């Protein structure tokens, strides 16, 4: 089912599409940014709770700088020095984050209209044509994202692309989760598990140094279920530099496996994250401030948590990191799953 979501400043119409299952769970996706606008899941009392941050209409997404719910590409996260070398050629990118590139720069993929290729009550496929040298990256590629809502309360996200030149691809979703409800305040009491023994150390501008640091004995350790706020204020280099958690975790194992989990005692709602990617950025909305959101809510610092599955930040410039390079004619295809349940 399609609903008008407003018009952009350029006069483009944006729409909302609703996915539903038989358990009372629903997801709203917009063709603007291929964004997840809401995820409603019944709590322990059967009351539907919207558990992602967002805006009431397309104008919020057009003006917003927090990337709420959007699909981020061509390369999510940071590239150090806003440059990389590929095939003997140097490429320069937008310096939009302390001399580095964050989320590939303008025009951001989460602030463009995507084409709806297919849609029904349980799924939607969206596509964005990204031309050669879009955002500074070589090659034409049709970026495709497929959202599927299952009867097991899984929101499956599949990313696809086949470039016609060697290029970089690293798509992610930037939803901010608050399992007590998007308008319930901060998430510091909510508990998280991250299935990672190490994280990538980063400098003061969040560019990895290349060093892998064990989480054991540090505030970065989420291998056992722990409240987000328990150690977020500790005097530890990574937390000082990031203003809280804003770090890439090196996920244990390979292939499709559990990456993380989140729990809210207030609602009994829990979520698990699965992915086939090597890393995940855990971000605790450190830079969100007085952001006017859905239904009159005002989002502040720590009002949500992001679980951005990915290749590691600056992977193209780090030989010891799994490469985000996709060869000409090869298929880029990754899957991430957010699965919801009640405890």
Describe the structure.
The protein has 343 residues and is mainly beta. It has a single domain, classed as Beta-galactosidase, Chain A, domain 5. 3% of the residues lie in helices and 43% in strands. The chain contains 2 helices and 30 strands. It has helices spanning 58-63, 237-242; strands at 2-7, 13-20, 26-30, 36-42, 48-50, 71-72, 78-79, 83-86, 89-92, 101-102, 115-120, 123-130, 141-149, 154-161, 167-168, 172-173, 176-177, 191-194, 196-202, 208-214, 226-227, 246-251, 257-264, 269-275, 279-283, 291-292, 298-299, 305-310, 325-326, 332-342. Strand 13 (141-149) and strand 14 form a beta hairpin. The longest helix is centred in the N-terminal third of the chain and has 6 residues, at 58-63. The protein is globular, with a radius of gyration of 19 Å.
- The CATH topology label is Beta-galactosidase, Chain A, domain 5
Query: What Rg is obtained from the alpha carbons, in whole angstroms?
Result: 19 Å
Query: Which second-level CATH architecture applies?
Result: Distorted Sandwich
Distance between the termini: 31 Å
Integer count of domains: 1
CATH class identity = Mainly Beta
Largest sheet: 9 strands, antiparallel
What is the residue-averaged pLDDT? 98
Low-confidence stretches: none
What is the number of helices?
2
């Amino acid at each position: 089912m399609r609903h008008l979501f407003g018009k952009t400043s350029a006069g483009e119409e944006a729409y909302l599409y609703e996915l539903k299952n038989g358990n009372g769970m629903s997801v709203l996706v917009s063709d603007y940014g291929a964004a997840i606008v809401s995820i409603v899941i019944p709590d322990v009392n059967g009351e539907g709770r919207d558990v992602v941050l967002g805006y009431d209409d397309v104008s919020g997404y057009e003006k917003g700088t927090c990337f709420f719910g959007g699909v981020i590409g061509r390369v999510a996260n940071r590239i150090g020095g806003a440059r990389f070398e590929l095939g003997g050629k140097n490429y320069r990118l937008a310096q939009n984050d302390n001399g580095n590139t964050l989320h590939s720069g303008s025009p951001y993929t989460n602030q463009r209209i995507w084409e709806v290729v297919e849609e029904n009550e349980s799924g939607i496929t969206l596509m964005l044509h990204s031309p050669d040298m879009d955002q500074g990256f070589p090659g034409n590629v049709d970026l495709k994202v497929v959202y599927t809502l299952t009867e097991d309360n899984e929101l499956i996200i599949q990313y696809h692309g086949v470039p016609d030149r060697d290029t970089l691809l690293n798509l992610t979703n930037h939803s901010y989760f608050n399992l007590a409800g998007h308008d319930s305040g901060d998430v510091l009491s909510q508990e998280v598990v991250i299935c990672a023994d190490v994280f990538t150390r980063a400098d003061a501008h969040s560019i990895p140094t290349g060093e892998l640091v064990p989480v054991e004995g540090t505030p970065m350790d989420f291998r056992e279920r722990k409240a987000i706020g328990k150690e977020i204020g500790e005097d530890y280099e990574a937390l000082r530099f990031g203003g809280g958690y804003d770090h890439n975790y090196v996920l244990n194992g390979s292939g499709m496996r559990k990456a993380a989990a989140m729990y809210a005692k207030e609602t009994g709602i829990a979520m698990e994250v699965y992915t086939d990617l090597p890393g995940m950025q855990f971000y605790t909305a450190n830079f969100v401030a007085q952001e006017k959101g859905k239904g009159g809510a005002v989002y502040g610092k720590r009002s949500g948590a992001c679980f951005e599955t990915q290749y590691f930040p600056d992977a193209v410039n780090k030989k010891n990191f799994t490469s985000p390079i996709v060869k000409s004619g090869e298929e880029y295809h990754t899957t991430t799953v957010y699965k919801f349940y009640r405890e």
